Amino acid sequence: MKNRRSMVVVFTLLLSASQVAGRCSGAQTPAAASSEAVAGVLQRFVDNGTVAGIVTLVASGDKILDVEAVGYADLAAKKPMRGDCLFWIASMTKPITATALMMLVDEGKVNIDDAVEKYLPEFRGQMFIAEQDKDHVLLKKPRRPISIKNVLSHTSGLLYKSPIQQPTLDQFPLGVRVRSYAMLPLQFEPGSKFLYSSAGINTAGRIIEVVSGMPYEEFLSRRILAPLGMKDTTFRPNAEQMRRLAKSYKRKADKTGLEETPINQLKYPLDDRQRQPIPGSGLFSTASDISLFCRMILGGGVFRGRRYLSEKSLHQMTTTQTGDLLGKGAGKGGYGLGWFTVKTAPGEGRRPIVGKCNHGGSYKTAMWIDPERQRIMVFMTQLEDPNGQTTEKLFNTFKKAAGEAFGGE
């Protein structure tokens, strides 16, 4: 594909309410302060071929302030990026799954300190790797089995995925995948280290199925997605959503621009009804849909008069559960239950959300929640960026511009 210098298309919500509803699901008329400065600072990344296109959103607890789109959803076809484009949000699925499980905690059906084996007996007797080199592996019985808190905070010792999840993550039913995790030894004593693990969040999804008596995907739809109005959030985009799907790209080997690339963790076609839901990384969504979820979290578990999550559960989710396992200094940030935390400690803060929290996805989507400034920011693109250097520049540029225009990070 020939490298093309991309034009910038700025999409703002300075439109009538009817126009907004037609273009951006769930969006509202923005505040008068909406600024093209956010799109303007991102234009250079499109112009220099760093990224094909971007959608950004800024919101408060009660309304969307700004939605902007720059660049292309499809470079070859010169299809402009729009505010209602669909993206694979990958690991941004994790906080949504964690929220679903914490709903069951609120109902007294689950305790986060419970052993996973209480609900999934296939995990009984699971060992961990105490020693390993090229000549031997020594397995030991852990002092305690992995808990629900461990799988939600990535301290269980479960690998990121199991061998049956090759070449893609979505081939087998959730129960089959989770049984495969139980057949493997843990990488360390539960609670002693941090190892980012979609397998852990998938295990949480399977517990939701066992406890609720309904498929994980159905529970998510009934309890979170449909009530919040997240109509474009799905594991398998339909035909209309596929037309709005932003294509994914990676840097060319010679670094002269971008080339289209498939999402290598998912089976194609993406609308195949046989593809299985992935609690740890499977959802597709739009910036506006994600803002609905974030606004519920920012609202202390309440959105438009309906309570989804208790303040106690939200406090636990946004409190650092990993101590200094991420090397940031105890209480200075790490991982809670389904969320990355920025500056939290057990018992700190009186708000339901202890402090700033965030989560990203592997193809460079992200959401940030700032309870102090009552601000939400969402960033959407589809870029394969293994080392993360490009992504850090994109995110930091967006957050700075959004903060200057609206307050926040």
Question: What topology does this entry show?
Answer:
Blueprint: H1 17-23, H2 37-47, E1 53-59, E2 64-74, E3 79-80, E4 87-88, H3 93-106, E5 128-132, E6 137-140, H4 148-153, H5 174-182, H6 198-212, H7 216-228, H8 239-242, E7 249-251, E8 258-260, E9 284-285, H9 287-298, E10 302-303, E11 306-307, H10 311-317, E12 334-335, E13 340-341, E14 357-361, E15 365-370, E16 375-380, E17 383-384, H11 389-406
Parallel strand pairs: 7-17
Antiparallel strand pairs: 1-2, 1-16, 2-3, 4-9, 5-6, 7-8, 10-11, 12-13, 13-14, 14-15, 15-16
Structure notes:
The chain has helices at 17-23, 37-47, 93-106, 148-153, 174-182, 198-212, 216-228, 239-242, 287-298, 311-317, 389-406, and strands spanning 53-59, 64-74, 79-80, 87-88, 128-132, 137-140, 249-251, 258-260, 284-285, 302-303, 306-307, 334-335, 340-341, 357-361, 365-370, 375-380, 383-384. With 409 residues, the protein is of the alpha+beta class. The chain has two domains: 17-93 and 229-406, DD-peptidase/beta-lactamase superfamily (Beta-lactamase); 110-218, Beta-lactamase (3-Layer(aba) Sandwich), CATH 3.40.710.10. The protein has an eight-stranded antiparallel beta sheet, sandwiched between helices. A three-stranded mixed beta sheet has the order 8-7-17, with no helix packed on it. The relative contact order is 0.17.
Quick structural summary:
The protein has 2 domains: 17-93 and 229-406, 3-Layer(aba) Sandwich (Beta-lactamase); 110-218, Beta-lactamase (3-Layer(aba) Sandwich). It has 11 helices and 17 strands.
